[in-house]
Amino acid sequence: MTVLLITLAVFALVMLVMSVGVLLSGRCLRGSCGGPAVLDGDGEPITCATCPNRERLLEEVRQHALEAAAEQAAP
Fold first, then answer.
1. How many domains does the chain have?
2. What is the pTM of this model?
3. Contacts with 64 (C-beta within 8 Å, 6 or more apart), sequence order
4. What is the per-residue pLDDT across 34-55, written as a single tens digit (0 to 9) for each?
5. Burial of residue 47, with CB atoms counted within 10 A of its CB: 0-12 exposed, 13-18 middle, 19 or more buried
6. Is the dihedral of CA 35, 36, 39, 40 positive or negative?
7. Please, is 54 exposed, middle or buried when counting C-beta atoms within 10 Å of its C-beta (0-12, 13-18, 19+)?
């Protein structure tokens, strides 16, 4: 029984540390279905309108798309 309680305590501690890391990272939470590169029908990235980092994230997606297009165009 002691081993079970120690194991549960270790798992709880690990989850606590991971959640603090997510809170301190300052990033917006995103769904796992495709990540940040999910695009709508017009080719625009789908992001949460209330995200405080929206403009920075959109710029990162645009920059990544430009770099990918440049790599494909290069011989």
1. 1
2. 0.41
3. 37
4. 555 566 666 666 666 656 666 7
5. middle
6. positive
7. middle
